[in-house]
Amino acid sequence: EQSYMESVVTFLQDVVPQAYSGTPPAEEKEKIMWVRFENADLNDTSRNMEFHEIHSTGNEPPLLLMIGYSDGMQIWSIPISGEAQELFSVRHGPVRAARILPAPQISAQKCDNFSEKRPLLGVCKSIGSSGTSPPYCCVDLYSLRTGEMVKSIQFKTPIYDLHCNKR
């Protein structure tokens, strides 16, 4: 049985162009700009029962792999079996950064306006949904449950990375 890293290496070998083999590729493949492993509510099977039904092979939560391309990004779930499943894909230009937002700690005074849309994904693309902001100055929030964009947040300066917590 493959370890997580062996499963990921096998997966990346299938996805990444064979640029170092010395032979020209038979077909043009996408250029990977960045890769990130994500630990989030999404792959916590104790908090996300829908995800538990998809990957109910054991107690070990699947690894989430985020891949940024020159024209978009993908999120893959890689369970211990190594059979990758695509969870999300967006193709609207380069993505500088992306993060899965953790579910907030809700108190009696606060209401979660996005509870029906969670888990949420924050994506910093080259051009935001409004199309009027300078490059990389917008974060679009996507629902991983429905695939729709639920909010767009504009900034005055370029975004270089995204960080988030339960607050």
UniProtKB/TrEMBL annotation:
BCAS3 WD40 domain boundaries: 30-167
GO cellular component: cytoplasm
GO biological process: autophagy; response to starvation
InterPro entries recorded: BCAS3-like, BCAS3_WD40
Domain of life: Eukaryota
PANTHER family for the chain: BCAS3 MICROTUBULE ASSOCIATED CELL MIGRATION FACTOR (PTHR13268:SF0), BREAST CARCINOMA AMPLIFIED SEQUENCE 3 (PTHR13268)
Name recorded for this polypeptide: Breast carcinoma-amplified sequence 3
Organism of origin: Fulmarus glacialis (Northern fulmar)
